Amino acid sequence: MLLFAVGFLLVILQPSTGQFPRACANTQSLLRKECCPPWDGDASPCGELSSRGSCQNILLSQAPLGPQFPFSGVDDREDWPSVFYNRTCKCEGNFMGFSCGECKFGFSGRNCTERRLRTRRNIFQLTTSEKDKFLAYLNLAKNTPSQDYVIATGTYTQMNNGSNPMFRNINVYDLFVWMHYYASRDTLLGGSNVWRDIDFAHEAPGFLPWHRVFLLMWEREIQKITGDENFTIPYWDWRDAEDCVVCTDEYMGGRHPTNPNFLSPASFFSSWQVICTRSEEYNSQQALCNATSEGPILRNPGNNDKSRTPRLPSSAEVEFCLSLTQYESGSMDKMANYSFRNTLEGFADPRTAISNISQSGLHNALHIYMNGSMSQVQGSANDPIFVLHHAFVDSIFERWLRRHRPMLEVYPAANAPIGHNRENYMVPFIPLYRNGEFFKPSRELGYDYEYLQEPALDSFQEFLIPYLEQARQIWAWLVGAAVAGGIVTAVLTGLVLACWKRRRGTSSEIQPLLIESEDYNNISYQSNF
């Protein structure tokens, strides 16, 4: 009752962040290919009168793509968002948003000049009231219509190239479910033909930055609809877990007493309806998911195919993954070997980093283990465990960034699968975000993780790890260089001494054996690495 009461009291309509801005989902905007709504503060497009931003042409990356998608001009998501819009708001300074009406992640205040750092916490470290508030917020998002955004129910061609807009309203939670679906759906090629080897959010370098943006946007929307500016997504640390410890009525919903595939009626999640789960039906109809309800959340944790995912991931597997020095490698898709991204995503063995798509490790293992709505990629965000899981995956990404301190150039600039190059805009976000913009430490984006806030000594050790790793890789060269340096030093020293003795013209027998004390004090010793 407490959860429903809190949810009722919090039901207020506020703006939502997502895909197509409502202000741009009309014939005029689509035909002009322009999405530059006025900022409420001064009624000028992009807040230009207040120097917040201006309406500008979109600059698309021209870098070559990988071979995984052999088509061009058949998918609305190619060169996002140019099929729909080629002019959007370009915000200045710390301003952000489709109308430059918000602050960049990590900033707040009237002029977006105040830095903020929020901390994401382990869900089991929350107090009972904090945990109940989080659950109430989830339910509120499921029942609050998005004010600023709508979803597309047809392709651009089906919209008659913009003259017949096809959009519909959606609630805040399902908006994010739909975005996850839209980024990972198959390409519709006409008739009954589809292309399945395409995904703008998975199976390639953008997997981690894309979900980082997704969580930041989701987190911000909860802050907006609740008025709770301090809200952060909790995470579930699933390392070494014996079973789904969050799958209880106290947390994310227990098992139904008579049907193990359903949630317990004691949890309000049992009344939630899923959307965007029938990919084969959409493909056969050459249609997009229109967010129609498709039944309750399904979940039967642990009763999955054990040959594919025998258990939940271990701490040792996470540590091995963190030791990998390459963010991406080879084909930069699910066949990549020794790739941190591919190993964390779960297409490479978490003990060897060799690609093995017949098994599901780390991130993928958790999805498969849940054995229900969360196990199908396009509709996986329907299960609220999704955000707990991906917050922890993001924390592993954050640990890797802090340990290896990669330059931006480490993220591939070219030849990645479609949509995943460094300068590509992420599908389907408006405002626009590039993949490379989120290949940076979380503190620069305004958040941290509770378990990563370690004492100074541990932080110093973490700082040293990448340098020690580099030293280990070149130890033979270092030893060889040291030996060679010693030989050269000895030879030079001998030559200098010989010349010195010859110049002095005095036999060694009459030279003093000890240095006078005043000369000794003037000698300095230096150690060079």
UniProtKB/TrEMBL annotation:
Which Pfam families does the record associate with it? Answer: Tyrosinase (PF00264)
Question: Which principal EC class is assigned to this enzyme?
Answer: oxidoreductase
Q: List the membrane topology term(s).
A: Single-pass type I membrane protein
Q: Record's GO cellular component, any one?
A: melanosome membrane
Membrane spanning stretches: 474-500
Does this UniProt record's set of keywords contain Metal-binding?
A: yes
Domain (Tyrosinase copper-binding) spans: 202-219, 383-394
SUPFAM superfamilies tied to this protein: Di-copper centre-containing domain
Q: Which segment of the chain is annotated as a signal peptide? A: 1-18
Its keywords, alphabetically, are: Copper, Glycoprotein, Melanin biosynthesis, Membrane, Metal-binding, Monooxygenase, Oxidoreductase, Signal, Transmembrane, Transmembrane helix
The UniProt entry, under PANTHER family, shows: TYROSINASE, TYROSINASE FAMILY MEMBER
Protein name per UniProt: Tyrosinase
